[in-house]
Specification:
mainly alpha; 2 domains; 205 residues; single chain; Arc Repressor Mutant, subunit A; 0% strand; 8 helices; Rna Polymerase Sigma Factor, Chain: A
Length: 205
């Protein structure tokens, strides 16, 4: 498929090229999708994702999710006579919003777990009056033992060994974004396991 150089072409050339790419993609041509990615990835990253997320790694993960979602939907996309960039930009903005929501949920889960472990790190904490450090450690270990090995390892790396997210992801052999999702699910599973063993009264407010 011959490519129109968008940097020098006019708007009609641009739209014609996009429509040809779209037709090729809908016929199953993945190379044509690569052409769209090469043209739109940089502006989506610089104009939409990085300003909203403020973190290069998060923006890169959101960019990958943007094009994954776009690839799933391009088969039924119908042009309205405007550039694909607007459609892709809306997907990217939604992915950035998803990242913010995920950060909020993960932050709350991390704070809850940290609050539970505080007596192990800070003698004299209020919870210590109800439970000594040794018993709390046993309780935490028991709840961790109820988790799947993957969830348990995720929590151990990030929360107990205090490794950076990037290093945790490398050890788990997944992307940073995938690790963040895995950590949130692991923390939720831990909370359920801990409550099942010890009840709500053990939770910090």
């Amino acid at each position: 498929m011959k490519r129109v150089r968008l940097a020098t072409g006019n708007s009609d050339d641009r739209l014609e090229w996009e429509l040809r790419c779209l037709a090729e993609i809908q016929r199953g041509n993945r190379r044509a999708f690569g052409e769209l990615y090469a043209e739109f990835a940089a502006p989506l990253y610089a104009q939409i994702l990085l300003p909203r997320l403020g973190n290069p790694a998060a923006a890169e993960e959101a960019l990958a999710e943007t094009f994954r979602a776009a690839l799933e939907s391009l088969g039924t996309y119908r042009s309205q006579g405007t550039s694909l960039f607007g459609w892709l930009a809306r997907i990217a903005a939604n992915k950035a919003t998803d990242v913010h929501r995920h950060r909020l949920r993960t932050g709350k889960a991390l704070a809850s777990f940290d609050a539970l472990l505080a007596p192990l790190r800070e003698p004299g904490h209020e919870m210590e009056r109800r439970l000594d450090q040794g018993r709390l450690r046993v309780a935490v270990d028991a709840a961790l033992g109820d988790l799947s090995p993957r969830y348990r390892r995720t929590i151990e790396l990030r929360m107990l060994e205090d490794l950076r997210r990037v290093e945790c992801a490398q050890r788990m052999q997944i992307s940073v974004g995938a690790f963040d999702v895995l950590l949130l699910r692991a923390l939720r599973a831990f909370r359920q396991a801990f409550i099942a063993r010890h009840g709500e009264k053990w939770e910090e407010p």
